[in-house]
Amino acid sequence: MRxxxxxxxxxxxxxxxxxxxxxxxxxxxxxxxxxxGREGRVFPVVREPLITGGIFGIKSGDVQSxxxxxxxxxxxxxxxxxxxxxxxxxxxxxxxxxxxxxLCVIDGNTITTVRTGAAGALGLHxxxxxxxxxxxxxxxxxxxxxxxxxxxxxxxxxxYVKYVSADRKPDFAFEAQFEQRCQIHxxxxxxxxxxxxxxxxxxxxxxxxxxxxxxxxxxxxxxxxGADTHGKRELPEGLLQESRLIVDDLQQARSLGExxxxxxxxxxxxxxxxxxxxxFDRADxxxxxxxxxxxxxxxxxxxxLIFQKASAAGTGTSVVxxx
Length: 323
Hints:
Layout (H helix, E strand, L loop, with lengths): L5 E5 L1 H7 L2 H16 L3 E3 L3 E4 L5 E9 L4 E9 L11 E8 L6 E6 L1 H19 L6 E5 L3 H13 L5 E5 L7 H7 L4 E4 L3 H6 L3 E4 L18 E4 L19 E4 L2 H6 L11 E3 H5 L13 E4 L4 H18 L3 E4 L3
Parallel strand pairs: 1-7, 8-9, 8-11, 9-10, 11-12, 12-15, 13-14, 13-15
Antiparallel strand pairs: 1-16, 2-4, 3-4, 4-5, 5-6, 6-7
């Protein structure tokens, strides 16, 4: 029996130190390309409610040609806020596909946050009008911050930001993170904010429509992040049918995303746009929607990046894992 195997543990602090936005963008772009070419497989998603009030999920997949195999166990526990903790929790495992042995256990919270922000940025670059100046963000949590950070990097003309908090009150910590890069204000009227925006980003728990369909003006692009579970939604009835819809994965979007509410709506996958398999000519009056449910391949390509960096730098904790 082999007894010299080891398992690398990479905690949140190490992940934060190793994770660079440009590297994540490259890794997420690769994940979309692998998905588009069907070189990477995405296995069926597990997403189940718990009696504790949390939601537990597993996203997994592989890239056989690259020897990449793994999963992310993650979910949402809203009661964590009462404990002073983050409600989103995620752990990523990478495996050796030849033996099934675990190679690495990585804290997945920051990876999930940043890779989702990077996916949003790729959607904005491909779909939003390049001259977009005004954005409305629904939510002020970790994901709203990530989406806005990447949006300000991606759309160079963005300078006016309105945000809609859960209680419609200003979140000064949220404002402080961005006030040096834009003019940012709390919006108390969601419909009015949307009507004045070129870009709308929804990053909430997905408990119901956030604004009225008639508030969306022609030419608006919408990044939808919060609908990632059966029963969740953020967009109003009828909007998808009047939009040009792009998804990250068609099957997931129909079961977990905004597309679950209008499953027959015509759409294309973002990976096919990024690889040129599908062309997209945006008219100035088009309303575009990017329905983001999150690809397992995004977690795996970013986790592999962290595994390689940690191994090269000698960071993380290596533990004996005999077999």
